[in-house]
Specification:
- By secondary structure, this protein is an alpha+beta fold.
- It has one domain: Aspartate Aminotransferase, domain 1 (Alpha-Beta Complex).
- The protein is built from three helices and four strands.
- The protein has a four-stranded antiparallel beta sheet with strand order 1-2-4-3, with helices on one face.
- Helix 1 packs parallel to helix 3 and helix 2 (about 55-70) packs across helix 3.
- The longest helix is centred in the first third of the chain and has 22 residues, at about 5-25.
- It is elongated, with a radius of gyration of 15 Å.
- About 25% of the residues are buried.
Length: about 130
């Protein structure tokens, strides 16, 4: 029986999650950068990429959406604008992909909310 080498697993899955987070960063207007190493990663949430103004307000909206989807992610950083992505060391690749999918979905939903004009009603989106 092969002994588990958790540090190798953490490095491999961490690289996979980081690549997924980098893709989210490239396609999002509100994700500034990806920080971290291994399974200790963070997404910097900003008002927009041009100004790179930290946004704890948008971060709170994203964490609330993730909570509704069953994902608990903390915010951290001096401005409270870093989404701390730190899954357990035993996370599988499929679970990591599911986590990244839900994270991308919450960010996309938040991006559309951010663009609403004052007085417009928001549609409620419920997780399946």
């Amino acid at each position: 029986m092969r002994k588990p080498r958790l540090w190798e697993h953490a490095a491999e899955i961490g690289r996979h999650i980081r690549a997924r987070l980098e893709d989210i960063c490239k396609s999002s207007k509100i994700v500034g950068t990806v920080h971290g190493l291994g399974l200790m990663l963070g997404l910097e949430i900003v008002e927009d990429k041009k100004s790179k103004t930290p946004s704890s307000r948008i971060t709170r909206i994203i964490t609330k959406k993730l909570d509704e989807k069953g994902v608990l992610i903390n915010s951290s950083g001096h401005g409270g604008n870093i989404l701390a992505v730190a899954p357990p060391i035993i996370i599988t690749k499929d679970e990591a992909d599911h986590l990244c999918d839900l994270l991308a979905e919450a960010i996309r939903e938040t991006g559309t909310i951010k663009g609403l004009k004052r007085g417009m009603k928001r549609k409620r989106v419920r997780a399946a």
